[in-house]
Amino acid sequence: MISIKSQREIDIMKEAGHINYLTHQELKKALKPGITTNELNIIADKFIRSHGAIPSSLNYEGFPKSICISVNDEVVHGIPSNRKIKNGDVVSIDITVRFKGYESDSANTYIVGDASEKVTNLVENTKNALYEGLKVVKAGVKLNEVSKSIEDYAHLNGLSVVEELVGHGIGTSMHEDPDVPNFYTKSTVILKEGMTICVEPMLNLGKKDVYIDDNDWTIKTVDGLPSAHFEHTIVVTKNGYELLTGE
Question: Which of 19, 175, 196, 225 is at 20 to 30 A from 3, Cα to Cα?
Answer without folding.
Answer: 19
